[in-house]
Structure formats: structure tokens, C-alpha cells
Design brief:
With about 525 residues, the protein is an all-alpha fold. Helices cover about 75% and strands about 0% of the residues. It is globular, with a radius of gyration of 22 Å. Its main location: membrane.
């Protein structure tokens, strides 16, 4: 694709945005102690938690990948977000209170509290590898795609290095507080910019095009697809996507770390509900424009290029600069989130265990150094992602192998008081062996089966291993079950207390509203 020139005004807007983000992030940084640097002092209100969670979740796989997949296959890609909202309600209701009450810094730390340190080290290692090679590298690659549209002769590796430096410039010095405060601005810019782009798509014949698709019963506007569909078979919506959703929203350090920064369980829950509402909105501001782009820009060879193409082709001077800033907002917020969460994992799960006499300031210094190493590795790997076809395919397929055993360990840990450390570790290792086999011999094992339909087999295998091996060891001691397992008695007590709360302050009411909206969308687009 030929380069697309932007004028001085748009360039000035982008530069001012980048300067603002760096200044704002550094201004609100906290690095005096580990609690401040890694968890922002655990003082965040619900609306900040929600905006930060949304901004961190709108990664390259969402903004670039989902719009590209919508262009290629239609609205069915939104099933990932639709299922994600259902998972968020589940997470806020059952898992979030256990995370916050246990006082953990990292999600792997929860596995140690419930099981033992072996499970913690394994999951933390998996998270660090995934954050570097899936998330951080994916965000850098997506940023490079945008710049390559403007400057096709620019060196891909150089572009990636520049974006890595931008994200690191405020995240490494200021920690989670810097990242969250920068994400507040980024979330607003992203939402406003996406609404503007959606309006431009509809103004250029998008409404008539969508209406014609509905009238003709075109599959591109159907969320429910045949079992043979190569993008999202309907059974995958039931048996595969929820598992990936639990891993992404409830076991992902990058996202859950925002919730751990909440000043209370209730504030964290309301923040998750707020993020769920914003996630539903992506149907209209990310997926719809991707579908409309099939009419506006037919013949795009690489679907991942469609979102930046819409921005560059549809928006006038000024708005173009704002929308490019929105794209950069999504990418830099993802990078800053990944940097901080991954350095937290390394520092708290590994270094703090090795150097048990390290004080708060030393832990912060190690966290900063870890962030630097992480961004360098991600920047070196990012150019390789182009070999995987599309960002969404790259991310979802890798996740489908990694997620099931981890989700199995968390579900068994929270909802089964019989599961123990020996069983959890055996299930995680067995899942790792199967994941490695899948990478090498997937076709020989499952043939051409869609990866979403493979996920339940991997989950069931891990659950069975955890349960069977747990039976060979004694019951877990009582201290392993405190603030780590679901209690029906506590749930009933909470129900009684919520009966005395105004409906608009009751997180369960908002959870029901989100679920009803999900069903409503599913019915309309079935």
C-alpha cells in the first residue's frame, strides 16, 4: 500500500499527545515502596479501575486484530468480547474478593497461598513469557504497522524501538500509578476517537451497507456461525471462549493488577462492571467499522491494516491527528500495562524469594531493571510476528494452548476444597506437556479441528489430572483454604447485606444488566 501523507496539524497533535502522556505519567508516578510502585498504593476508586482496565485490555489484538477480523469474517469476532463480559461478571462475583482479601501482589502468588510455591513459580514463568512474546511484542508490532502506512520505507525494527522507548519512558520510573494515570487519558482519547471513526464510517454509506447485509441475511452480521465456520464455530462460543476469557480477564496479571489496586473489594467489583460496559461498546466502535470497511475499502490483502487504513483515509485534518493519537493510546497503554505487570511478576515471584533481605527500595530498583530487560526482548521479537498471518490468530491460538491448564488450576483451587498442591502442580505440568505436543503435532492429534473446539479437551484433561493426583495426597491444611476458596455461607451473608444497599450501589444489579445486554445483542445478531 502506498504511503499516506499527513500534514503539520496532525503531526503536531500526535507529538503533543505523546508529550502529554509522558509528562502526565511521570507526574503521577509512585516509586517510594513496593506497594506504591507495583500496586499504586491500593487506593484507586472504581471509575479509575474501570477505565484503566478497559484501556489496558484494548490491546493490539482488540483494536487492530478485531477490526481486521471483522473485515475478513464479520461480526462473529465480537463473541470474544461478548463472552468476556460474561466472564467479568463471574470474576467480580466469585474470584475478585478472594484476590483482594488475600492481599496478593501477583496472581501466581494466589496459587502459592492456595496450593504451594511450585505452582506459583510455574504460572509466573508462563505469564512472563506470554507477556513478552504475545502481548508486548504484539503491541509493538501493531504500532509499527501504523507507522509503516505513513512511512513505508521506514525500518520496522527502528519503529518498534521508538515505541518501546516511548512506553518505557514513563512506566519504568513511575510504576503502576504512572501507567494507570496515563491510561485515564488514553481511555478517553480512545473512546472519543473510535466514536468519531464510527461516525465517519456511517457517514460514508455504512448504514445502508449494514442494512443491506441484514436484509440479505449475510453471515457477516451473524454472531452465531455454523459448526464448520473457520472463524468462530457456534460450539466454540460455549466450550472454548469462556476458558480463554477466564484466563484473559481473571488470571491475567496485566489486567487483574489494575483491580488489585482498588481501595476495596466493592470498588474493584464496580470497576470491573464499568469495564464490562465499555467492552460491550466495542461492538459499535471497533467491530462495526471493520465490517463497513469491506464496502469502503475492498481488496485489502492484510486484514490487520484495515483499522489504520480507515483512520488515514476517512478522517480530515485535525480529526486524523486525534484518531492516530487514539491508536497510539491503545498501543502505549497496553505496553505500559504489560511492562509494569511483568516486572511485578519477576520481582515479587522470583527476586523477592531469592533475596529475602531486599528492602522496599531495592525491590523497586529491581522492578525497573526488569522492565528494561523485558521491553528490549519484546522489541527484538516483535518483527517475527508478521510470519503468523494476523495478530488475532497469533494471539488466540497461542492462548488456546497456554490457558486451559491454568484455568483448571484456578477453578479447582477456588471451588474444590479437596484439590491440593501436588494435584495442581501435576495438572499444570501435564498441561504444559500437552501444549508442547499441540505445537508440534496438532494436526496429527486433532486434524483440522478449530482451536476453540480443542480448548475443552485440554481443560478436561487438566481438571482430571488435578483431581486424580490430589486424591493421592492428604487434604490441604486449613490455612490453605482461608480467603482462597469460595464459601457458600459467605455468599449468602453477602446477599443479605446487599439487600439493604440501594440498587445503583449494588454490583450484582449491574452484573445482571450486563448479562441481559449480552443476551439482547446475541438475539438480535443471531
Amino acid at each position: 500500500m502506498n504511503s499516506i501523507a499527513i500534514n503539520f496539524v496532525d503531526c503536531a497533535i500526535i507529538v503533543l499527545y505523546l508529550i502529554l502522556i509522558i509528562w502526565w505519567g511521570l507526574r503521577h508516578g509512585k516509586s517510594s515502596d513496593a506497594g506504591s510502585y507495583f500496586l499504586a498504593g491500593r487506593t484507586m476508586p472504581w471509575w479509575i479501575v474501570g477505565l484503566s482496565l478497559f484501556a489496558a485490555s484494548i490491546s493490539s489484538t482488540t483494536l487492530i486484530g478485531q477490526s481486521g477480523d471483522a473485515y475478513h469474517t464479520g461480526v462473529a469476532v465480537f463473541n470474544y468480547n461478548l463472552t468476556g463480559v460474561v466472564v467479568m461478571v463471574f470474576f467480580a462475583t466469585f474470584l475478585l474478593p478472594l484476590y483482594i482479601r488475600s492481599g496478593i501482589f501477583t496472581i501466581p502468588e494466589f496459587l502459592e497461598r492456595r496450593f504451594d510455591k511450585r505452582s506459583r513459580y510455574y504460572f509466573s514463568g508462563i505469564c512472563i513469557v506470554g507477556n513478552i512474546f504475545l502481548d508486548a511484542a504484539g503491541a509493538l508490532y501493531a504500532a509499527a504497522l501504523i507507522i509503516k502506512l505513513l512511512f513505508p520505507d521506514a525500518d520496522l525494527q527502528l519503529i518498534i524501538i521508538v515505541f518501546a522507548v516511548l512506553a518505557a519512558s514513563y512506566t519504568i520510573p513511575g510504576g503502576l500509578s504512572s501507567a494507570i494515570n496515563a491510561e485515564l487519558i488514553q481511555a478517553v482519547i480512545l473512546i472519543v476517537g473510535s466514536v468519531i471513526l464510527t461516525g465517519a464510517c456511517f457517514a460514508n454509506g455504512g448504514f445502508d451497507y449494514l442494512a443491506s447485509l441484514f436484509e440479505s441475511g449475510d453471515m457477516s452480521v451473524k454472531l452465531i456461525r455454523p459448526l464448520t465456520d473457520t472463524a468462530t464455530p457456534w460450539l466454540g462460543l460455549i466450550v472454548g471462549m469462556p476458558v480463554l476469557g477466564i484466563y484473559f480477564w481473571a488470571n491475567n496479571q496485566t489486567l487483574v493488577q489494575r483491580v488489585l489496586s482498588a481501595r476495596s473489594v466493592d470498588e474493584g467489583r464496580k470497576g470491573v462492571m464499568f469495564a464490562g460496559a465499555l467492552t460491550l461498546a466495542t461492538f459499535f466502535i471497533i467491530v462495526f467499522p471493520g465490517v463497513i470497511a469491506r464496502h469502503l475499502f475492498p481488496g485489502i490483502e492484510k486484514p490487520d491494516m484495515i483499522y489504520p487504513t480507515m483512520v488515514l483515509r476517512l478522517l480530515p485534518t485535525g480529526l486524523l491527528g486525534i484518531m492516530l493519537s487514539a491508536l497510539l493510546a491503545a498501543l502505549t497503554s497496553t505496553l505500559s500495562a504489560i511492562l509494569n505487570s511483568t516486572s511485578t511478576l519477576f520481582t515479587m515471584d522470583f527476586y523477592a524469594k531469592i533475596d529475602k533481605r531486599a528492602d522496599e527500595r531495592k525491590l523497586v530498583r529491581v522492578g525497573k531493571l526488569a522492565s528494561l530487560v523485558i521491553i528490549v526482548i519484546a522489541a527484538l521479537w516483535a518483527p517475527q510476528i508478521g510470519r503468523f498471518g494476523s495478530l488475532l490468530k497469533y494471539y488466540q491460538e497461542m492462548l488456546s494452548y497456554i490457558a486451559p491448564p491454568v484455568v483448571a488450576a484456578f477453578l479447582m483451587g477456588v471451588f474444590s476444597r479437596r484439590a491440593n498442591g501436588r494435584g495442581a502442580f501435576a495438572g499444570l505440568i501435564a498441561g504444559l506437556v500437552v501444549a508442547a505436543a499441540m505445537l508440534l503435532w496438532r494436526t496429527e492429534i486433532f486434524g483440522g479441528m478449530h482451536f476453540l473446539l480443542i480448548v475443552p479437551f485440554l481443560l478436561a484433561f487438566s481438571l482430571l489430572v488435578i483431581w486424580a493426583v490430589s486424591l493421592t495426597a492428604p487434604l490441604p491444611p486449613p490455612d490453605k483454604l482461608t480467603d482462597t476458596t469460595f464459601s457458600a455461607a459467605d455468599f449468602r451473608a453477602e446477599t443479605r447485606s446487599l439487600a439493604e444497599v440501594s440498587w445503583w450501589r449494588n454490583y450484582r444489579v449491574w452484573g445482571v444488566v450486563l448479562l441481559v445486554l449480552c443476551v439482547f445483542i446475541l438475539i438480535i445478531f443471531c
